[in-house]
Amino acid sequence: MTLLEHLRELRTRLFRASIAIVIGLIIGYLLHNYILHILQDPYCLLSEKQVRQANHGNLPAGWQCQFVALKVTDPLLLTLKISLYTGLILASPFWMYQLWAFVAPGLHRSERKWAYVFAGLAAPLFAAGAVLAFVVVSKGLEFLINFMPPSTSLLLEAMSYVDFVTGMMLVFGVAFEFPLGIMLANIAGIATGKRLLGWWRIAVFIFFVFAAIATPTADPFGMTFLALCMSVLYFGAVIFALVNDKRRGRNRPSYAGIGDDEVSSLDDYEVEPVEAASPIDGYDPVDAPTPVAAPTSVERPKPLDARFDDIT
Questions:
Q1: Helix, strand, coil: what percent of the chain each, to 5?
Q2: For 134-138, which contacts have Cβ atoms below 8 Å and span 24 or more sequence positions?
Q3: Three-state secondary-structure class, residue 157
C-alpha cells in the first residue's frame, strides 16, 4: 500500500469516526438536562445538607440548588460542552475501532488477536475510571466546602463546576488505560513480568506524582484514590505479565529442555552466505612468487646400527 493510499484510508476512518461522534453529540444534546442534573447532584446534596444544619434540620421555603452564569453565552457553551462529552463517550467503541482498523494491518496475527481484546477492555476501563472520579468528587467537595466560613454563602459558577467534574472524570478515565499499555508491552516482548515487578517502587512513586499534578483539586482524597487505583491496576498487569511469561517459557533458557547427553538441534540455524573477497589493489599475479609444491612422499630415516647405550 502506497503512502497516498494510507492517507486516503486515514481520511476515510476519520470521517466515519466524526460521523459517529456527531450522532453521539445529537443524543447528548437531547439528554443534556438530565446529564447536567446528574453532574450537579454532589454539590446540591452538600449544599442541602449545610442548609439543613444551619436551619435545625429544615429547608427554607422555596429553596433550590442554583448555579451562576457569568456570561450570556455560558448556557449555550455549557450545553454544547455536555453534548460533546456525551457524544465522545457514547461513540467511543466505534471511533476506537476505526483507529484500531487503521493500525491493525501493520501487526502480526497474534498481536491482532490481543489488540482486539484490549480494544474491548479500553471502553469499560475508561467508564470505570469516570464513575470512580464521580464518587471522589463528592468527597473532595465536602472537604473543600468545610473550609468555608459560617458567615459566607457558596454559589458556584456553572461552567467552572462542570469543567471541574468532567476534568476529574477525564483524568481518572485516561489513567485507567495505563495497564493496557503495560500488558501490550509484555506481549510484544519489550518488558518481562519479572522486570516490571522489580520496578514497582518507582511505578508507585510516579503514580502519586502524576495524581498530584493531574488531579484538579487541592484535596488529598482525589490524589490518593487515583494513585491507589493506578497501583492496583499496575500490579494486576504485572500478574498478567508473569503468567504470560510462564506460559510462553520466557523465563527459561533456550537449552532448558535439552539433556546433558543430548546435542542441540541445528534445524533453526541459518548459515549466512560468505561473499567473495574483493581483489587487493596493486596486486599483480604475474609477479607473485611461485608456490612450492608439497612433497608427495616423506622419506623415513634409516635405523641406527647401534643404540646410544651400546657406545662405550
A1: 65, 0, 35
A2: 134/42, 134/165, 134/168, 134/169, 136/168, 136/172, 136/221, 136/222, 136/225, 136/226, 137/42, 137/164, 137/165, 137/168, 137/222, 138/42, 138/45, 138/46
A3: strand
- Compute CA distances 66 → 60, 82, 174, 230, whole Å: 14, 18, 31, 35
Number of C-beta neighbours around residue 310 at 10 A = 8
Rounded CA separation 78/312 (Å): 126
- Tell me how far apart the alpha carbons of residues 140 and 153 are, in angstroms, rounded to a whole number: 18
Which one is predicted more confidently, 104 or 209? 209
pLDDT of residue 1: 65
Instruction: Select the more confidently predicted residue: 233 or 304.
Output: 233
34-88: pLDDT as tens digits: 988 888 888 888 777 777 777 777 777 777 777 888 888 888 888 998 999 888 8
pLDDT band at 152 (very low <50, low <70, confident <90, very high): low
Question: Can you name the residues that pair with 128 across neighbouring β-strands?
Answer: none
CA geometry: angle 14, 20, 25, nearest 5 deg: 120
Q: CA of 275: how far to CAs of 35, 244, 282, 284, in Å?
A: 72, 42, 21, 22
**Nearest alpha carbon to residue 81 among 169, 17, 142, 14:** 169
> Mind listing the pLDDT tens digit for each residue in 163-182?
888 888 888 888 888 888 88
pTM reported for the whole predicted model: 0.64
The residues pairing with 157 across neighbouring beta strands, listed in sequence order, are 68
| Long-range contacts, 212-218 (Cβ 8 Å, 24+) | 214/171, 214/175, 215/168, 215/171, 216/164, 216/167, 216/168, 216/171, 217/140, 217/144, 217/164, 217/168, 218/144
